[in-house]
Amino acid sequence: MTKKTLTRAVVHIGPQKTGTSHLARYLTLASEKLAQQGVLYPSGDLWFDETRRIVKHHQLQSGPFDSNRQLVDTMTKLGEIARAKAAQNSLFVSTTIFVAETSSATLHTPRDLGDFLLQYFDEVLVVFFARRQDKAMASLIAQRIKDFNNPGMSLQYADYVESEKAFLASIDYSALLEKWTFGTQRSRLIVVPYVENERDLMASAVRFLDVLGIEAPPVPSPALRENRFNPTFSEVGLRELAKVKKPAGRFSFASPSAEKRRHIFDEVTKKHHQIAHGTSDPMGDAPFVPWSLSAAEKKQVLGDFAESNRRFLEIVDQGEFTDLWARWLADDQVEEG
Prior knowledge:
- The chain is α/β, with parallel strands linked by helices.
- It has helices at residues 20-29, 31-35, 69-88, 110-117, 133-146, 158-161, 165-169, 173-183, 203-211, 223-226, 235-245, 258-272, 295-304, 306-315, 322-329; strands at 7-12, 39-40, 55-56, 94-101, 123-130, 188-193.
- Strands 1, 2, 3, 4, 5 and 6 form a six-stranded parallel β-sheet that branches.
- Helix 3 links the parallel strand 3 (55-56) and strand 4.
């Protein structure tokens, strides 16, 4: 007799630059209304990450999950709450959502995670958002430049091809997918296309809940629809940040201290953070346009990942997203600039 599914754990594994921070914030703010549908989003003392907001998969300890006493206690508590919610209403499956970015540097295997969660939940679902690599690469490069503590200062894709193998591996979706497909034989894997330039910034979060059969509660904060968590600055702004990050030569008497450079860096960042497309660029007279790779670089990125993406589409169950996948990989989607 097949055991009835009463509780399920859903792990959103990203990867990077697919709206995980935005989703995590939304789930936090909407957690009370989601709970009315039997949906739990662990935070605070019900989760184990110091940020209390988002868990980054590759920052977890290596070694068995079962050796992490705090994690075991947390999951035991969550499993009990989930079962209690399922018992209260037979119309829904109690769902517990975890947001956990993955990368090629993940220290444990997907099978470790799936087997561990199945000790506490009846079913495990893994949701993977895939973003076109030319767009994802531009966002990754911009994010590096926007991080004062990261040495990255180049806007050229070619500068990352040889020196940043792990960086490129984080958007090698067929490799990541093969890893998760192999590791989730006792659970289900759902792959969703990330849609670029959506006016409604909540669209990805709504799409995520929709594939789970969960109705998305109204956005509790207007800022979630209007503001991106990690917006890409203009080329002028990013070059200014790179310039500030780079210390002057050792014989320069005008070289500012790291503390001073950090202050200048933060001021430039603040000016750019939520500039609307088409308004005046704070670093120049031209209208603000978010930086992106050149058309030639975009084609190079997609060419570098062409074979990976071919395998990717053979693995993924395209389901209701067939048209989106076709648009996602179409060559004519590579625009100038």
